[in-house]
């Protein structure tokens, strides 16, 4: 739990870093901004992927994934050990922020040195290059910027400045990654195009976030600031490293067992699932963590906020999962081209676990806001072991086996996370099940109409049947949105429906009251 900081750690604060006010509108606005950023970023990534997949090979994408995964380790360590405590604490000072930046720099330098050492020792022992030199160079260069971004973004997150985050994410993605990568790929630079784009985007995002955060001029912070952050740092660091390892383990397993070509196929198949997770899940977790933390001494409000977040989110997650499963082939054909057919079942199997993969971010945000870092870390260790163990048991099934193992392990972790929330908030099993009832009804109804229309129009060809089925899914969602009882729909979704109905009624009245044109 967050506690008031001691006077010795603060000193004269040159700038206050206060929690944003708690309100449903503020939460929705924050989620909306972050989701918009990730959605637009997703569209940029999909466009660049659609072009680059026709220029570069799966092996190129496999190498790029290794660089991104390794470089992101610094961000994950800093996120859990430094950034999350900055968001969770009731009060922080400029000294805490300066200490966090120092710690982030140290983490990045240590990890970069460790990566170089591992590469050198591995090459000496094996007599060959274990980690490609290009991976070592670009991952080491990217690590410090990813670490600083975690700290600086935590300041914006704490203050509810999600609009700034949105603009920065879009600018860095477009001008730092997409445009340079496309230009270099067309110029024939192959894998260098992807790696330069990743590094440039990290540099630009760090610079823009630092400018937005308005950190006062650096002064050496007192050690007391480090002690204030340390209470949650150790558990938070372990938690984030284990989470990084769990999410990255499928890529490492596929790359180790099946090679870079298979890793390229697997990673591209997982692209849409990861993008949906980022658009929906990461946006929620970044907004809900400071929201739940601001309610630290109001457990009843936390229960209400958790229930409302689940009621508003689960149907959207379920529909996204159904759409990806049913239209995976169409998505792969459009985005990747005809040579990536092996990615289709990977996408479908991972999409089956989309709801638990996103929803556990809501439950974990609540538990972290309550300071339960070690229990979350313990469950994530079990999650990592489950992914690795199940994947190794089904390696004979190839990429599809690994994808199915990831979905099974994610679903199991989600159940354990829900059980922890249930115990912490004293929610009963039937209450938890009711939260998922609307999502199950929406998913089954939409999937049924989609499959029925796709089957009825299959004689017209692949694309007409896909478009008709997708239209049926959208129609089912629209009908369900207006027909679902208020109690099952949830407070926020019901309020949104009321506003939509009022707007439509107003438009209809204005049309009726418009004078008819005179004849002649």
UniProtKB/TrEMBL annotation:
This is Polysaccharide biosynthesis protein. GO terms for cellular component: plasma membrane. Belongs to the polysaccharide synthase family. It is a multi-pass membrane protein. It is found in: Cell membrane. PANTHER family: LIPOPOLYSACCHARIDE BIOSYNTHESIS PROTEIN WZXC, PST FAMILY PREDICTED COLANIC ACID TRANSPORTER. Keywords: Cell membrane, Membrane, Transmembrane, Transmembrane helix. Its main location: membrane. Pfam families: Polysacc_synt_3. It comes from the Bacteria. The keyword Cell membrane applies. InterPro entries: Poly_Biosynth_Transport. The lineage of its organism: Bacteria, Pseudomonadati, Pseudomonadota, Alphaproteobacteria, Hyphomicrobiales. The chain crosses the membrane at residues 33-55, 61-87, 99-118, 130-155, 167-187, 193-213, 309-328, 381-399, 462-483.
């Amino acid at each position: 739990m967050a506690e008031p900081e001691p006077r010795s750690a603060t000193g004269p604060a040159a700038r206050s870093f206060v929690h944003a006010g708690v309100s449903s509108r503020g939460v929705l606005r924050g989620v909306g901004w972050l989701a918009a950023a990730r959605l637009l970023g997703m569209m940029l990534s999909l466009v660049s992927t659609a072009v680059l997949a026709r220029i570069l090979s799966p092996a190129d994408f496999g190498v790029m994934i290794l660089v991104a995964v390794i470089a992101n380790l610094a961000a994950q360590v800093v996120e859990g050990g430094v950034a999350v405590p900055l968001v969770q604490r009731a009060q922080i000072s400029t000294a805490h922020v300066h200490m966090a930046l120092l710690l982030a720099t140290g983490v990045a330098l240590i990890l970069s040195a460790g990566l170089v050492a591992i590469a050198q020792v591995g090459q000496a022992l094996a007599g060959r290059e274990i980690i490609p030199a290009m991976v070592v160079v670009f991952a080491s260069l990217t690590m410090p910027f990813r670490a600083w971004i975690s700290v600086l973004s935590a300041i914006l997150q704490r203050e509810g400045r999600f609009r700034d985050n949105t603009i920065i994410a879009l600018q860095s993605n477009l001008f730092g990654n997409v445009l340079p990568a496309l230009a270099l790929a067309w110029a024939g630079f192959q894998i260098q195009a992807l790696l330069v784009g990743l590094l440039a985007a990290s540099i630009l995002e760090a610079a823009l976030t630092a400018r937005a955060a308005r950190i006062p001029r650096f002064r050496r912070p007192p050690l007391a600031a480090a002690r204030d952050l340390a209470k949650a740092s150790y558990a938070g660091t372990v938690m984030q490293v284990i989470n990084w390892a769990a999410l990255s383990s499928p890529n490492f397993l596929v790359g180790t067992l099946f090679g870079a070509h298979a890793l390229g196929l697997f990673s591209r198949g997982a692209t849409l699932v990861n993008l949906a997770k980022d658009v929906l899940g990461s946006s929620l977790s970044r907004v809900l963590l400071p929201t739940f933390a601001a309610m630290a001494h109001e457990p009843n409000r936390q229960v209400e906020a958790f229930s409302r977040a689940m009621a508003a989110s689960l149907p959207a997650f379920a529909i996204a999962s159904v759409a990806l499963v049913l239209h995976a082939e169409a998505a792969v054909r459009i985005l990747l081209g005809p040579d990536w057919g092996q990615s289709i079942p990977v996408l479908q199997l991972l999409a089956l676990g989309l709801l638990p993969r996103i929803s556990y971010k809501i439950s974990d945000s609540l538990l972290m806001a309550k300071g339960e870092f070690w229990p979350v870390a313990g469950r994530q260790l079990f999650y990592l072991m489950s992914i690795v163990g199940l994947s190794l048991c089904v390696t004979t099934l190839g990429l599809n086996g690994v994808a199915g193992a990831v979905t099974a392990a994610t679903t199991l972790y989600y159940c354990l996370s829900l059980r922890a929330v249930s115990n912490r908030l004293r929610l009963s099993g039937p209450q938890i099940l009711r939260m998922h009832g609307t999502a199950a009804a929406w998913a089954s109804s939409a999937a049924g109409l989609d499959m029925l229309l796709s089957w009825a129009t299959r004689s017209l060809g692949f694309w007409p049947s896909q478009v008709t089925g997708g239209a049926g899914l959208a129609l089912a969602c629209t009908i369900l949105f207006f027909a679902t009882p208020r109690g099952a729909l949830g407070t926020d979704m019901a309020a949104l429906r009321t506003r939509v109905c009022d707007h439509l009624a107003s438009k209809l009245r204005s049309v009726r009251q418009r004078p008819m044109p005179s004849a002649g």
